[in-house]
Amino acid sequence: MDAPLDAPAVARLLSPAGAVDALADVLREGLDPEECPPRTAVPVPAGELLLMPAASASWAGVKIAGVAPGNPAHGLPRITGTYLLLDGPTLRPMAVIDGAALTSLRTPAVSALAVRHLTAPDRPCRLVLFGSGPQAYGHLEAVLAVREVTRAVVVARNQERAGRLVAHARDLGVPKARTGAAGDVADADLVLCCTTARTPLFDGRLVAPGATVVAVGSHEPDARETDSALVRRAAVYVESRAAAAREAGDLLIPEAEGAVGPGHIAGNLAELVTGRTAPPDPEAPRLFKSVGMAWEDLAVAVALYRAASGSET
Q: What's the predicted TM-score (pTM) here?
């Protein structure tokens, strides 16, 4: 086993577009997200430990991640962790990868893959981005890898950090970037929610028909970034129906309120990528709710290992 792949190596070896393609490839090859082992969450004094295993015939892997809500106050990342990649047939360790860097790459790639299939390829996007942390930066870069963005509005509690993200957006080629407020979703084609919020960020009635909302901030059944009004109006897509039923508070809370029934999900990510779900209704908003799954970590980890080793197998 070679030296661990640290955060700079992860960023150098695989682009956001490459991570998107790695996810799409495994879905086209037949991976079924519904069969992925569930995440195990263990409460600890500092937050929680997450154990995320996945395997295929050729590869296996597991991520051990820590979520420590108090870390940012001490200048430390909220999410820490390590990924161990194994050879599938022998379970021999092949690589150790920085878990936080892997998560920062794969989560935006999952969102960008959904955006690729839920938005028009020939129509530039007006973007509203909630959040100013690592996932907000990663989502901005990943979306720019799959769609043209003509305007970006950053909505965040910390205005200084929001301003830095605006400057970054301009550096990436989005000259019409500025800070804004929740009401800006009314004029957006694409809304990305990358926060630690536990209650809705905006009024879902404001989202335009045909606009796409991506919510990635929570994997807890009692937390959400979007409201019941949006879920009731939207065509809803998820990584996996089973994972959403366990962890997606954005969907479980509206169900508990009676706003929607349990069968309101229009499709999962595999069905979107392979064309096995009907095209979205142009008169309805689209909502993609992501909770993060172990098969995604494995797909991107394998792509990183192949890039590092120069291997195609």
A: 0.94
